[in-house]
Amino acid sequence: MTVQSLLPARPPVTRPIRTLATLGDSTAVGLGDPLPGGGWRGFPVLLRDATGAELVNPARTGARMADVRHTQLPAVLPARPDVALICAGMNDTLRSDFDAAGVRADLAATLDALRGVGCHPVVLRYHDHTRVFRLPGRLREALRNRVTALNAAIDEAVRSGGGDAGILDLHRLPGGYERAAWSVDRLHPSELGHRLLARAAGELLTGAGFAVPAPVDVRCAGGREITAAHRAAWIVVKGTPWLVRRGRDLGPVILHGLLAGGRAG
Predict the structure, then answer these.
(1) Mean pLDDT across the stretch 227-239?
(2) Are the beta carbons of 15 and 211 closer than 8 angstroms?
(3) Residue 24 pLDDT > 70, yes or no?
(4) DSSP state, 170?
(5) Disulfide-capable partner of 212 in 149, 202, 208, 221 (CB 3.0 to 4.6 Å)?
(6) Residue 180 has what DSSP assignment?
(7) Angle in degrees, CA 148, 242, 47, rounded to 5
(8) Boundaries of each SGNH hydrolase-type esterase domain copy (predicted)?
(9) What is the CATH code for 12-259?
(10) Tens-place pLDDT, residues 125-143
């Protein structure tokens, strides 16, 4: 036995996350996890608290991948974040002009720019949202195919940059398809869903060598309680107007699904 073998093993070296960035759509804004005094918390704030980092979050509701590249990225790069999470693409799938190749190009450019400032990017890869948001059969298949095309675009963008970005696959997120993980609109995570997402992101970053001193607790606390009255109000004030606004964009998707047996691309 050598002297060296008698020495205690050194703990693995971890890199602190001083600046954390999140880019993307309403999920990155925190929708679905309301605070008692108003506003939203969501997985970016939960992950910020877990890492002790400064958070830069230019995400906005309705954002598409092109918005991430052209509007949000310029707001993030000067901060030179250690880690950036990208949560975008679902809004692209809900538009009549969905273009998987364009999504891939915008994401690839965003990843290259983040790597250029020494940032470790993490991209969200999407679940089968038709298992959460119930739709008629033909439309369900059409939108499922769009999410498949979106995920293929995400995979290709990551591969084109050498595959060194982290991928958080929401389809494999433990508890991700449970009803309690989703808010009343079935479009955004609930507080629990945001906590599950933040915890999984923290575990992914730990595996990549980053320090996450206070892993996210999945027990809900600090958010606003959602009651039956809140759910009913959402249907009247938010849900129906949203469906009306999206009607013009979703109409071609529905028609294509009905005429082409649900094959949308």
Answers:
(1) 46
(2) yes
(3) yes
(4) G
(5) 202
(6) G
(7) 60
(8) 23-196
(9) 3.40.50.1110
(10) 999 988 887 766 667 788 8
Query: Which amino acid makes up residue 151?
Result: N
Eight-state DSSP code of residue 237: I
Nearest C-alpha neighbor of 157 from the set 217, 113, 218: 113
Contacts of 94 (CB under 8 A, 6+ apart): 143, 246, 249, 250, 253
What are the strands of the beta sheet with 54-56, ordered from one edge? Answer: 54-56, 19-24, 83-87, 120-125, 166-169
Per the listing, tokens 């369900």 go with 140
Tokens representing residue 103 in the block: 């999504």
pTM of structure: 0.83
**3-class DSSP state for residue 98?**
coil
Residue 47, CA distances (Å) to 2, 42, 111, 194 in order: 43, 9, 20, 10
Strand 83-87, strand 54-56: pairing: unpaired
CA 109 to CA 100: how far, in whole Å? 14
CA 220 remoteness from chain centre: 19
CB atoms closer than 10 angstroms to residue 181: 22
Residue 207 in this model has a pLDDT that exceeds 80: yes
Given a cut of 70, is residue 11 above it in pLDDT?
Answer: no
Residues in the chain: 265
Classify 210 as helix, strand or coil.
strand
Give residue for tokens 């808010």.
183
Report the Cα–Cα distance between both ends of the chain, in Å, rounded.
63
Quick one: tokens of 67? 């918005």
DSSP class of 184? T
User: What residue ranges do the domains of the chain occupy?
Assistant: 12-259
The rounded distance, in Å, linking the Cα atoms of 125 and 147 is: 9
